[in-house]
Amino acid sequence: MAAKTTNQKAWFFVIPVVLLVAFNAVIPLMTVVNYSVQETFGDNVFFWEGIRWFEQVLNSERFQSSLGRQVIFTSIILAIEIPLGIAIALTMPRKGPWVSVCLVLMALPLLIPWNVVGSMWNIFALPEIGLMGKGLNALGFDFNFTRQPLDAWFTVILMDVWHWTSLVVLLAYAGLCSIPDAYYQAARIDGASRWAIFRFIQLPKMKRVLTIAILLRFMDSFMIYTEPFVLTGGGPGNSTTFLSIDLVKTALGQFDLGPAAAMSLIYFLIVLLVSWIFYTLMMKDEVE
């Protein structure tokens, strides 16, 4: 039997990618790690602090409050956008000219830059001139997202649902289109109800794309910054100051580089850990 030859030339194509990732991710990460365990007063003079900044951040009521707000926001977003995205994907046509129209309409919100989305909804929700804000007040609601925390939360959640539900729709629709017609034909022969088809055919076949959708929406919503910052600036008060906004305020507003670096690493580890748990739980029954 001839010996198997190994071609190592592929590494020449991989090395540039590795170097690019190292430059864009690893090196900045090492800088953050360096600041998280040291104190500096400028002029490149550093003093070893160990885990002091991590203890300070974890014991900080400010960090715990912003983390709590972040968890609540992400939970609400996932609870709304995943079922809503699936429901919209189920109503979309699979054949005919309306397929292209529906796909384009679903993709439009995703094409708008994040800062523009925040500006749009800021104007849209203003109680004096905004279509939504003025309309709600005309209907008898006392709506003012610049002064009332609940109104601010309602506006931020509504904005995110409008902006990102389309991503779930497109992923769920792709999963539905990949299901062979033979499954539906067998279900019709057995007299399966619409709910039975969804539960035993469509939902299991969408498991992989829904895993991707949940992971993407978790990471995006948990790290959201631009839209709520442009819309509310973290206010009124600190009611919409999520973890990302608090981190930027600590790093750039107060210039506390040590605590900010420690907070960013804790932030990163939380996202990484929860994403791993999500993926493990959703894929544990998968058969290779």
Topology:
Elements: H1 11-36, E1 38-40, E2 46-48, H2 52-58, H3 61-91, H4 98-111, H5 114-125, H6 131-138, H7 149-177, H8 181-190, H9 194-205, H10 207-222, H11 226-231, H12 243-253, H13 257-283
Antiparallel strand pairs: 1-2
Helix pairs in contact: 1-13, 2-13, 3-7, 3-10, 4-7, 7-10, 10-13, 12-13
Number of structural domains: 2
Order of secondary-structure elements: HEEHHHHHHHHHHHH
At the fold tier of CATH, the topology name of the largest domain is MetI-like fold
CATH arch. level architecture of the largest domain? Orthogonal Bundle
The SS-based structural class is mainly alpha
Q: State the low-pLDDT regions, or none.
A: none
Radius of gyration, taken over Cα atoms and rounded to an integer in Å: 24 Å
In CATH terms, the superfamily of the largest domain is MetI-like
With helices defined by DSSP (H or I, 4 residues minimum), what is the helix count?
13
Could you characterize what this model shows?
The protein has 13 helices and two strands. With 288 residues, it is mainly alpha-helical. It has two domains: 44 residues, no CATH class; 206 residues, MetI-like (MetI-like fold), CATH 1.10.3720. A two-stranded antiparallel sheet has the order 1-2. Strand 1 and strand 2 form a beta hairpin. Helix 3 runs antiparallel to helix 10. The radius of gyration is 24 Å and the shape is globular. The chain starts with 10 loop residues before the first helix and ends in a 5-residue tail after the last helix.
